[in-house]
Amino acid sequence: MDNATTDSIPDSDFLKEFYIPDYILLPESEPDSTPPQLPQCPVLVFINSKSGGQLGGDLFKTYSSLLNEKQVFDLSEEAPDVALRRIYLNLEKLKSNGHEFAAKIQEKLRIIVAGGDGTAGWLLGVVCDLKLSHAPPIATVPLGTGNNLPFAFGWGKKNPGTDTQSVMSFMKKVKNAKEMKIDNWHILMRMRAPKEGSCDPIAPLELPHSLHAVQRVSPTDELNMEGYVTFRGGFWNYFSMGMDAQVSYAFHSERKLHPEKFKNQWINQSTYAKLGCTQGWFLASLFHPSSRNIAHLATVKIMKRHGQWEKLHIPNCIRSIVCLNLPSFSGGLNPWGTPNSNKCRDRDLTPPFVDDGLIEVVGFRDAWHGLVLLAPNGHGTRLAQAHRIRFEFHKGAADHTFMRIDGEPWKQPLPVDDDTVVVEISHLGRVNMLATHDCRAKSVNDPSSPTCHDTDEKDSDEEGSVVADEFRKFGAADTFKIPDEVDISHIS
Fold first, then answer.
1. Quick one: 492 exposed, middle or buried, by C-beta within 10 A (0-12, 13-18, 19+)?
2. Which one of 199, 222, 321, 421 has the largest count of C-beta atoms within 10 Å of its C-beta?
3. Greatest extent of the chain over all pairs of C-alpha atoms, in Å
4. Alpha-carbon distance 182 to 173, whole Å?
5. Which residues does UniProt assign to the signal peptide (predicted)?
């Protein structure tokens, strides 16, 4: 067996495969007089030290002890866009001076990010926004509660060990991992700002880190009037709305009030399940007013790859809607499943590929409906696959709903006057991920990817373009400035 994963004493030769010298990381450092050994898998490690109870902090200490401590970053101390901008500017400077070592480091560079799905999304958004030359692929360490993104790409969903052996074992997997493309999904939200509170984020929403206020809109924008604000961001796993997001919001609120009660993943998941009961998710027909069902809250429109907007029919019983990019939701479940041949032919449906430019739209009635995912070939109510989807909220019986992006929920006010809240999701290119060779995420270009199931396989009958300027950035990098020519008015 490889002593990199079995010995308690770190293997120095193994660690050299990942080590990056100071002068690559720090612009003020001088190159070594003796050329160092070229690492085969140079890595930058970004860790949310506040994730996973004490695990994040422990993981930071272990990585710092094994690698150059300057290639390991605590996200609570330094934002990833600041670190990546500094390192890549230095790499370009060294390359312009004919430094071949720097060019090879940049070519081989990989990123490890340790945190929840929200932390991973933050890194993905930053890499996309910075438009790095030869953007590095990203591996995700599961430090959150759901860990859907790491699970989809083969990195597991249980919180990892933080000891030397566990970390070196993970590094070895990163070295051997394959690169995969994953679709980026841009989200744009426009609404009237509350009468009280600031705009970034809007209080009392406490929007997730993945949504960022755009403070200026075009003079030609029909909604460019006092009191309106626009947010934008990105996601790589899912956007959801309704009762599932309500339960998630209750969980996050409780954790914020009593962080000492949420020390490990098992406790978090148990608390989450209890809140699902107390919030009425299992008895939704009794506790959840029909005025909050999706069909009563919003008009939903979809667009195929190169088509026109068309209204999407949402059954009246649907209380939760999920726009899904990966085959992993709620701790590893696959709400879309694999449609059988009849569904593929009659409804123009496909398996859930992660790089096909299509997002899967799935509906659920209640938690009992969600339990069907535990059965073979189980799935939710398949509503559509789309290149873009748009939610239009008008004044109605409900004054708020709950939304969630990659595990980060918020309470969303709805119009009380003759206003409109608009949420629009659109495809925006792809980013590089690292995946194990047996991961469940599948590429449309991979010959081993699944096709539609044969017609004799059971499949539950639960069914009842040119990118505009405002969709070209996620806003994840704080250093990003909106160029003067950007017109964010064309959201229709």
1. exposed
2. 321
3. 74
4. 19
5. none
| DSSP-derived 3-state class of residue 437 | coil
Treating both helix axes as pointing N-terminal to C-terminal, what angle do 117-130 and 80-96 enclose, rounded to 10 degrees?
Answer: 40
Closest CA to 66 of 20, 119, 114: 20
- Per-residue pLDDT of the chain (492 residues), as tens digits, is 444 444 456 788 999 999 999 999 999 888 777 778 899 999 999 999 988 777 899 999 999 999 999 999 999 999 999 999 999 999 999 999 888 999 999 999 999 999 988 889 889 999 999 988 789 999 999 988 778 899 999 999 888 899 999 999 999 999 999 999 999 999 998 877 655 544 444 444 577 777 777 654 555 555 455 667 788 889 999 999 988 788 777 766 666 666 655 555 555 555 545 544 554 544 445 455 666 678 888 899 999 877 889 999 998 888 889 999 998 776 667 778 776 666 666 577 888 899 999 999 998 876 544 454 444 565 678 899 999 999 998 877 678 888 988 878 888 888 777 677 889 999 999 999 999 998 989 998 876 666 655 434 444 444 433 344 445 566 565 433 323 333 333 333
Q: Using only C-alpha atoms, what is the Rg of the chain?
A: 23
Cα(188)–Cα(194) distance, integer angstroms:
18
User: What tokens were used for 332?
Assistant: 């590893």
First-to-last CA distance in the chain? 58
Closest CA to 340 of 453, 479, 191: 453
* Structure tokens given for 422: 């608009």
Closest CA to 410 of 246, 237, 214: 246
Residues 168/11, Cβ–Cβ less than 8 Å: yes
Q: Which residues pair with 431 in a beta bridge?
A: 182
Distance CA 300, CA 295 (A): 8
Omega within 30 of 0 (cis) for the link into 39: no
Distance between CA atoms of 173 and 78, rounded to whole angstroms?
A: 26
Alpha carbon 95 to its chain's center: 32
CB atoms inside a 10 Å sphere around CB 360: 29
Strand partners, 388: 303, 426
Would you tell me how many other CB atoms lie within 10 Å of the CB of residue 392? 14
In 138-186, alpha helices (H): 148-152, 164-176
What is the phi-psi region of residue 330: left when phi exceeds 0, alpha when psi lies from -120 to 50, beta otherwise?
left
Q: What is the DSSP string of 232-300?
A: EEEESSEEEEEHHHHHHHHHHHHHHH-GGG--SHHHHHHHHHHHHHHTTSTTHHHHS-GGGSHHHHEEE
